Amino acid sequence: MRHILIVGINKVSIKYVCDAIRSVGFEPILSVDPSGFHGTAKSIFEGVTCIPGFSDADALSSYLKTHAELAGRIHSITTFFDELFPVVSAIAEEFGFNAPPAVFAKLSSKEFVGRLVPEHVPAESCVSLADATLDIPWLTPGVGNDVVLKPSVGSGAVATMLLTIAADTDPAEVIRSAILQSGIDHPENITWIVQAHCVGDLVSMEGFAQNGQVTFLGVSKRDRVGFTEVANRFPANGVIASSVRSKMETAVRDLIKRSEFDNGFFHCEFIATPATAYLIDANMGRLGGASIVEQIALAYDLAPATVLQQVALLPLGLLEGTLHYSPVEQCRQTLSYWYCLDHEAVVQDWEIPPLASIHTPIANVGSLIVPIGTSDYAWIGMLTGYADVVVDEIAQVRVLTDRGPRSPVFQ
Fold this sequence. Notes:
CATH class of the largest domain: Alpha Beta
Strand order of the largest sheet: 13-12-9-10-11-14-18-16
Protein name: ATP-grasp domain-containing protein
Number of helices: 11
Helix content: 10-25%
């Protein structure tokens, strides 16, 4: 039996990935800590080989070297987190595993993407604390400037900050101070992106390339509170003008052509205005996170495992045939609430009656969860289904915390 090692997968996709892999004759090995999952979800791991969760190539390499028998069973390695493609690429090269193309690792860098398609991204500069000077030539002198500061490689809005640089302050000092106070480990060792702040709707273009041919599955429209994404509507093609949607499609096609990204999914994030759209995060090589696999499956009347099988196997060269999708105009509207709490609290459990929608616990029981607005690490759970049903059923969800029962907060 040939095995596929999966390093990095979210709590929604993991419900379906074993069926997706096994249905084509492979066996999954999951790099994940099962203890972080709610009791009702732990049946996922029955009969599945699990190893510790890794996000560092050296640590994973050491583990595989000391577990040679397990390493010998691995045919392929992949991830559902684009920031882990560099780890996957390094391990594949070291151990001779089949893996997604090396360009996936390059595309995980916002700096690399910005250089490939500069006409499609907001004004931006790459900076590091190691730089002798932090030069941001596109700032407008003599007035205040709003900018977004974020790591070049990362996801979930971790360490992403909205900064206002006053007219009478030194931009370099503001940015250096913000990097040092970002709260992440060793901020001085990474590259940061300073990007012009764009005001508009947060949308994503979902789709994939197969043998260089691009298929657009539809637009996702997300709601945010601060830096926390709290709801997703799919497909939401009608919420933006057709000319703006065409601009998004052009940006994706240009990125795919210039990077020679021939086989894989994408979840390209844009800020859309009434007149145009700016690519702010490419997310190449993966499906959208959170509940998007369920929403695409529901919208197109497919099993989530069927969609996930294509996502996993296409970049590995293991997909047999082509999965055909109906025209997006025939899709039924879906909605997912990625709900939070409005205060810091320890999550103890959930009270969920029988629902037509799909509920996924996200927070680890016993963990202290940050309030809504900070980042996507504020997520408590997700309720996903057809839009009219989810709107009604969200009121039936209760979160049990150390501060008593609470209702979901998503706006």
